[in-house]
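Worked problem 6 (solution included).
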Amino acid sequence: MPEGPIAFASVASIYRYPVKGLTPERLNVAELTTGGYFPGDRLFAVENGPSGFVAEEPVFQPKIKFLMLMRNERLAALEARYDDATSTLIIRHEGTEVARGDLSTEEGRAAIELFFLRYARYELRGAPKVLAAPEGFRFVDTTEGYVSLINLASCQALEEMTGKPVDPLRFRANLYLAGMEPWEEMDLVGHTIEIGEQVRLKITESIVRCAATNVDPVTAVRDLDIPGTLMRRLGHNHCGIFAEVVAGGVIADGDAVRLRL
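Solution. The predicted structure is:
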């Protein structure tokens, strides 16, 4: 019997999504906090008409209440970047800057809202509104969605099933893992893994995939049926896993991922 945790994978890439439904931002390193959400992730959302969200008493809201890829695939055609130091969101479309706003100010949020009022006008149920997550809250898709992980081998298996390229960014995960067998991540539910020298994650559940994964993150074309393919071929529509941070620390590209026995 081997002693200590067993290395079985490595971190291939790290991403955050500052604004729900908008561009992923790649990170070289990230510092996770015990019991916390992924740093800089889902800090903001664009409300699609009144959602009932109250910042003073935040509760989980279904993603259908916000602009999101499952219904609003044209979001994938936008290139968004969020600057933490200035709280500024910059949106480009086809290489041209189309909106910029400091999300810490009413004027900055109004500039972004005005853009979406034009850009998504046929998909709106009411005036768009930029919402900021209060301390201890994020605009994630599930109450258990602290950190999300994707097995790159499962993405490769989906390519073989569909006969078409499957960009792993369709799944909008925080951590992409290399070195595993396809669907091996499903066996991790209930276990604790170590990443790097400090971080420990408890794997809480597998992720049910929705129609957002059907949208190509580069072309914004709805060109695949990922949930349907999973259901037909595997009998479920799960791909990826959620985890809770049980010990914080710094992680980086290339870090080893180990299973605690």
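Discussion: Residues 106-119 form the longest helix (14 residues).
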